[in-house]
Amino acid sequence: MAELRIGLPKGSLQESTFSLLRAAGWDCNVSSRSYYPAINDPEIKAMLARPQELSRYVEREVIDMAVTGLDWTLENGSDVEVVERLVYGKATRNPVRWVLAVPEDSPIRDPKDLEGKVISTEVVNLVGSYLAARDISAKVEFSHGATEVKVPYLADAIVDITETGSSLKANRLRIVDTVAESVTVIIAGRRAILDPWKKAKIGAMAMMLKGALEAKEKALLKLNAPRKNLEGILEVLPSLTSPTVNALSDKEWVAVETIVEAGLTRSLIPELKRLGAEGILQLSVEAIIP
Question: Can you tell me the distance from the alpha carbon of 24 to that of 82, in angstroms, rounded to the nearest whole number?
């Protein structure tokens, strides 16, 4: 049987990635001591690894595909195919940022103030490119973690990853600039993409994961509406294309359904009710495939 070897991120992205896989139809489970998740698909063999390493394994063809960060793929300079971008993280659905930060009372106010300074970071290559593009000469030291505590005694500034900025604020750090933005990506090896079966399998997984991600903030609304009020109801209903309208046995009524942003329903449903809608259902959506 043909087999696709995939790498999944261990650490902060693990649970959100497993949740996305489940929403897309792949039940993924792993014990606390194992690095090899069980997946309900006999064509897939999965392994867990740190996102920092996954692009190197894909480049070396140890695995065919991985879900990892674009930042680590660029940091490693890995020659891989970026198949899909999936904008999600540990806490939000926003891109994460690698930011240049200093203590609140630091005299550093501008990237140019880094001239001759020491910067601590996990992404040495990304920071090196950032400095080179601005013709700034500074010493960049690799941080093995807990980067926030490196200033002010071990470094003048840090470049660290943030999703909400709360950790930086808690450590009384001030953001000077954004060095890079990153999203979660599906990457594939060059040889894997040339294999017709693997390419099709990777493409199918990318499509389903993207569809599951798109559905997370959507809701399906179904309702019955008086035909005489249909025009007004359609005016307030957003839709991916246009709402579906079907006739009912009672010719004075129609059935309407549409996909909407989940956050809109709290104001939308009362408005629909005011316009005469009845039997309103709000349902979760597992996946949206354009």
Answer: 20
Q: Count of H helices and E strands in the chain?
A: 9, 16
- Residue 290, Cβ density class (10 Å: 0-12 exposed, 13-18 middle, ≥19 buried): exposed
Strands in the chain per DSSP E = 4-9, 28-29, 38-39, 44-49, 65-69, 81-86, 96-103, 118-121, 139-142, 157-162, 173-182, 184-188, 218-226, 244-247, 253-261, 278-284
**Which residues, other chains included, contact 42 with Cβ-Cβ below 8 Å and sequence gap of 6+?**
1
- Phi, psi at residue 288, to the nearest 5°? -125, 115
Total structural domains in the chain?
A: 3
pTM equals 0.85
Same domain for 55 and 68 = yes
List the beta bridge partners of residue 165: none
Which residue range(s) make up the domain with 231? Answer: 218-284
CATH code (residue 61): 3.40.190.10
pLDDT tens figures, 163-208: 887 888 888 999 999 999 999 999 999 999 999 999 999 999 999 9
Domain co-membership, 79 together with 189: yes
